[in-house]
Write the structure tokens for this entry.
Amino acid sequence: MSKRSIVHMLDPMAHNSPFDINMAVDAGYEIVIPYNSVKLEEVASLTQDAIFSRGPSGVKKTSLFIGGRDIGLAMDMLDAAKKAMVPPFEVSVFADPSGAFTTAAALVACVERDLKKNFDLPLSGMRAIVFGGTGPVGLATAVIVAQQGADTTIVDHFSIDTALDFAKEAKIRYGVSLRSTTAASDADKARLLSNADLVFCTAKAGIQVLNSSVLEDALQLKVAGDVNAVAPLGIEGLGIMDSGEPLVHAINSKGAVGIGALAVGNVKYKLQNALLKETLSSEKPVYLDFRNAFDGARKLV
């Protein structure tokens, strides 16, 4: 009898994401099994339960998806699952905590595209500011941008210590150097924007990060991207569907353009679907994280 396709969705949180479950079904998985409150030390045994029960042919239709909100923990869980494999009993594993990897990859790829299109410049050497840089999407964004050679600063709204801690972890885990700061006031934000080339707004939904007054202080801004789709949007004057449209309030930055949340979201949706389909169709096991997501996003844009 033909084996049915199964994805086991491991999540350290109390609830699995309905978004991810829907995406797995839409990607073609016949059976989706959610596991919540999964501890790191449980990943190996769950992985081996999944691989040894189906035989060499069955593992080709079996995969693991790792969710949660902590990108460092997700990477540890991905590593634990990979180490638990016993070839030929080996399945694909895709980590995308809170959709952070696919959202960040889509955001950076869109910004990179418009930077090249409008200014004929690469990410390397750009000064990049990531507001909300200590959240899962923000930190993943910062790591991807820094790996492409940008001088990258992560911004926490409240605590410089939190920003410093996340930058230290990024250095240890991913080998990137991130600057750290806090920006609770418009004056702080204006200071950061004064010499920024790129801005990534990844703060919580419904929070306006940059108002028109702050944007006027940007002197060399080239591209700004926002992932907030809930009013008020993260960047004043940037439309939710904008894709390379002029930033109307960045009046002192000639040619500055912006990318809205749904423009990013369209790429993110296609990207997550494509990566889930890859885990389902690949002849050999694949292990997917933010790096694979960025490669895929670049192809999509």
